[in-house]
Design a protein that fits this description.
The structure holds two protein chains of two kinds. By secondary structure, chain A is an alpha/beta fold. Helices cover 20% and strands 31% of the residues of chain A. In chain A, a hairpin with a 2-residue loop joins strand 8 and strand 9. The longest helix of chain B is centred in the last third of the chain and has 17 residues. The model of chain B has no long low-confidence stretch (mean pLDDT 85). The chains are: A alpha/beta, B alpha/beta.
Chain lengths: 163, 167
């Protein structure tokens, strides 16, 4: 299916949710949505019989300094097309719906995003830190993160002349 | 070799006598049965396995791997020590029976290596446990690890084990 046709089809199916739909340089599709409609968009993309984007290839979180974004890459074996779903949220207290009820495998992805960026996922079954120790303070991949000098009595300062 | 360990041979008819210090004999036995704990944390552990394999064959020095700290004399810290792993590593070290030795294998265990600027990596395993031999390399070759083991053996042989005070 042509990307143009797919844009039309998606515009038909998700007319009330899509803010912007664009073709990316590699012919993939990028759709921008409001974060409130994330769950219903994902549900439609996965379960609609004409679309069937039922492979969750990737999940990302991005810190844009003044805002955060979550990105989901989906693939449809039926259409042989990739689609990227992107939703922005405010920088203060970022929160978005968990899509665990649609894609079960996103569980650990979202935990990692929460761990490193501090984006909270509403409705997640087990939102705990995944990589860092559970008593860690802060979220290291944020742009405004300040590197700690000490952790539980361990000095984290780097020694000079260390090869 | 016999002279080196202060061993005197006396042949008398068909019998062989060896006289030596108890300590020397004990240290020889200890040095040639250094069992190491499998502390493979990252890619260095592949090299650690290779050292245990048939080509480098660390078995010929009497070293073989143990999967439990209770039976180990030597901890080979092979790989990156993360802050999450650090307390666990310290606990495993505490569970080992004295006398115990540590090889910090590879740049990561020495000082953090390529991950030294990371937020989650311990800058050298010597921050939490005492280290006997620092082995550089990323990762070190099996020959290098064998050399490190020989260094540990030399250290053991030199020790005044029986005269060690309790402090």
């Amino acid at each position: 299916m042509e990307t143009k046709k797919l844009i039309e089809l998606l515009g038909e199916k998700l007319s009330s949710f899509i803010v912007k739909a664009d073709k990316m340089p590699n012919n993939d599709l990028l759709i921008l949505i409001k974060k409130e409609s994330l769950l219903s968009v994902m549900d439609t993309l996965k379960n609609d019989l004409e679309l069937k984007f039922n492979v969750l290839m990737n999940h990302l979180g991005v810190d844009y300094t003044e805002s955060f974004a979550v990105i989901y890459n989906l693939y449809s074996f039926k259409l042989k097309k990739k689609v990227t779903v992107k939703a922005y949220m405010e920088h203060e207290n970022p929160e978005v719906d968990s899509i665990e009820s649609v894609f079960k495998g996103v569980n650990w992805f979202e935990r990692e995003t929460y761990d490193l960026l501090g984006i909270r996922f509403r409705g997640h079954s087990n939102l705990k830190r995944l990589l860092l120790p559970s008593d860690w303070e802060g979220h290291p991949l944020r742009k405004d993160y300040i590197y700690p000098e000490e952790y539980n009595g361990l000095i984290l300062k780097r020694e000079e002349n260390c090869k | 070799m016999l002279e080196r360990y202060n061993i005197v041979n006396r042949f008398k008819e068909d019998h062989l006598f060896i006289t030596t210090k108890v300590e020397t004999a004990l240290n020889l036995a200890r040095a040639n049965s250094v069992w190491y704990l499998l502390m493979g944390l990252a890619c260095c552990s592949i090299e650690l396995m290779q050292t245990g394999g048939p080509r480098a064959d660390i078995d010929r020095f009497g070293s073989l791997f143990r999967a439990t700290p209770r039976q180990s004399d030597l901890m080979i810290v092979a790989g990156t020590v993360t802050l999450k792993m650090a307390p666990r590593l310290r606990r495993l070290y505490d569970q080992m029976a004295d006398p115990k030795y540590v090889i910090a294998m590879g740049s990561c265990a020495n000082c953090g290596g390529p991950f030294t600027h990371s937020y989650s990596v311990l800058k050298g395993v010597d921050k939490i446990i005492p280290v006997d031999v620092y082995l550089p390399g990323c990762p070190p070759r099996p020959e290098a690890l064998t050399e490190a083991l020989i260094k540990i053996q030399e250290k053991i042989k030199k020790e005044k084990y029986l005269m060690k005070d309790e402090t």
